Amino acid sequence: MAVDARQIVEIGYGGSERLTMNMGPQHPSAHGVFRAVLTLEGETVVAVDAVIGYLHRCHEKLGETLTYVQYPSIASKTDYVAAMTSELAYVSAVEKLGTFEVPKRAQYLRVIAAELQRIASHCLWLGTWCMDMGGALGGGATVFLYCIRERELILDRFEELTGARLLYGFHQVGGTRYDVPAGWDAKVRETLDVIEQRIDEYEAMLEGNPFFLARARGVGVISRALAEEVGVSGPLIRGSGVSYDIRRAEPYSSYPDFDFRVPVETAGDCYARYRVRMVEFRESIKIVRQALDGLPAGPISSRPGVKSVGQIRVPKGEAYARIEGARGEVGCYLVSDGGPKPYRMKWRGASFSNLAVLPHIIPGHKVADVVAIMGSVDPVFGEVDR
Amino acid sequence: MPPLAWHALMAFIVLNAILGLVAYVTLLERKFAARMQSRIGPYYVGRPHGWLQPIADALKLMLKEDVVPTAADRGVYNLAPIVFLVPCILIYATIPFAPDLGVADLNIGVLFFLAVSSLEIVGLFMGGWGSNNKYALLSAMRAVNQIISYDLPFIFAALVPVLLAGSLQMSTIVAAQQGLWFVAYPVFGQLAFVAFVVATLAAENRVPFDILEAESELVAGFRVEYSGMKFALIQLGEYAHMLGTSFLGALLFLGGWLGPGPAWLGPLWFLLKAVLVFLLVTWVRWSFVRIRVDQILAISWKVLLPASILLLFATGLWVATRGAGA
Q1: Beta strands of B160-266 (E only): which ranges?
Q2: Residue B260, preceding bond cis, omega within 30 degrees?
Q3: Which residues of B touch A (CB under 8 A)?
């Protein structure tokens, strides 16, 4: 199936002229700085032009000017809502390029960090999505504040682990930078218990609410064919009936050691994506518990601590590493010329590819659905524009 | 005192009492919402419960620069907040706060209330149109759609107590509830109360029916271009309308000023009941997500309107066989 970049839906419209309305880059639901130019016939959107690039910071060029030791702590600024995953993608690419062994303990720590990050990121997604549908002065804001409360618990754990709450610098080539502090594992278990219980509450609150179901069911359907054609990943493609998860398809960082389920929904609408993420919450909690139980002893890095920024050198070559982030496939492509810095580096942001599906699914919906659909895609603009 | 002077004095007192009350109702809502969301709410201005917050807000809005968009239709734009506010205040004219305590206890009091309260749509539409803003225009279009759809069920639900009491005069309706408040009236009263609350939510543009304001899509809807005092007038009108409708609900269904204790407690009982209705609306507001414009219209025309008409007919038949006030 070939799809055009711009879709226009024809509706039987009795009005004389179309209205062109700008949504963003300054807009309460822009999720950062997204700009959608909507063509409206009455309340119905017939075409949408997506404009991105307002948050472009030359990140890939920046990656070429920083050494392999320096960049991991900057990598977290691409997807700032799930900072752990982009760091992991970069160091995995460097590890593929050279031959760095990652000790088992470090691999488990990476899994714990990645899964906790997924929970924190999904918390923020659920809150902002409900706010998109329910308004900042209404029931949506209530869910938002609840979710922020839970995300805060995880950020507290990250702060104890790394000293930072948003951008961590936790990963380094060959392992991790920090080991778990004393008593941390009990606190994490406690946090997970609280979150698990509250997720049940949210599900009861949302799924028993006919207004929520009316807004989420049958809205923004991504067919399986469209999902595969556009190349969406993460909860979007799993919501469209494709069982694709890089943790399974191309395991990294000891993921085969853990027992977890990859949720798949077939409806492809906002509700299916919501269901996928709600199950992912629970699966992530399960993985973290298993990793804490089985955390092996040993060193956390195969490399000594940082002595100079040019310490790491890798042979000539290229490598692409990909991991399953909260929003989908986060990939990092590196070309090395043998120096301390990459010759070329390229990000594959999950949000960027997922966003490309919007012009195909929005036309034909009402204005109110635009924000609901956009929220269900869960874009982070740091990762889209880089 | 000549009757005219008496009415003027009462109008002056009611107007000022209502303005003060409306300011503090906003504080009540903010505190209530904060409790629901595990927050604290207003705290620092007038510690420890933010008692001075409404006054600080009013002062802030008065001192703010009044910005008029260059492309706005100045006349319409400037007039809209006033056109919006007047009917919202005027609805208090026929509400008696106790027997013989009120501006004018007209014999068509309920009809007057319903007629005047629908007039706010004119101000809404003027604001949306005069701002020359696409968000405001869409919001004004939605406003007309929604308020026309929900005024009918609102009126039909309010007419059920009128039928049960056999009068359009508010004091008579309260007197008819001496034995049994209409909210407890088997089947008819209860269904009418539910219909009244739902239609109230929509007529007041509250979540889940707040598609006019819809800040996640239309930013702030028809009032997106308003700032300073004009914004304050719109906000005031909105809350005055909401509180007025709560008073009407308390009067039609909850027995108005009837309650235990001496007669002078009557107005306090009435206020308490009105605040309860207001809190019910607030509770709904902070627990639901907004629904879409087509779904809102479908709910009104396919469910609420036929149901309320049926209810009105059934009540009429019941009253015709039993006699009014029975």
Answers
A1: none
A2: no
A3: 33, 36-39, 134-135, 138, 141-142, 207-208, 210-211, 213-219, 285-295
Search chain A and give the residue with CA nearest B287.
A139
- Whether A331 is in a domain gets the answer yes
**Which residues pair with residue A331 across a beta bridge?**
A322, A348
Using DSSP, state whether A162 is helix, strand or coil: helix
Predicted local confidence at residue A3, as pLDDT: 61
Instruction: For B83-98, give the DSSP string.
Output: HHHHHHHHGGGG--SB
Among the partner-chain residues B218, B289, B292, the one whose CB lies closest to the CB of A140 is B289
| Contact yes or no for A170/A84 (Cβ under 8 A) | yes
User: A235-286 pLDDT, tens per residue?
Assistant: 999 999 888 888 888 888 888 888 888 899 888 899 999 999 999 999 999 9
pLDDT score of A1 more than 70: no
Place of tokens 């929220």: A375
Tell me the one-letter amino acid at A88.
L
Q: Which token pair is A157?
A: 């754990």
Tally of residues, chain A: 386
Q: Average model confidence (pLDDT) for chain B?
A: 84
Give the one of A21, A130, A370 whose C-beta lies nearest to B289's C-beta.
Answer: A130
Give residue A105's domain range: 59-385
d(CA B138, CA B136): 6
Residue A230 located in a structural domain: yes
Contacts of A29 in chain B (CB under 8 A): 216-217
User: Structural domain of residue B264, as residue ranges?
Assistant: 3-322
Chain centre distance of CA B60: 25
Structural domains of chain A, count: 1
Contacts of A319 (CB under 8 A, 6+ apart): A93, A94, A96, A97, A333, A334, A336
Q: Which tokens in the block code for residue A383?
A: 């990762």
Residue A205 within a domain:
yes
Chain A residues in contact with B26 (beta carbon < 8 A): none
Length of chain B counted residue by residue: 326
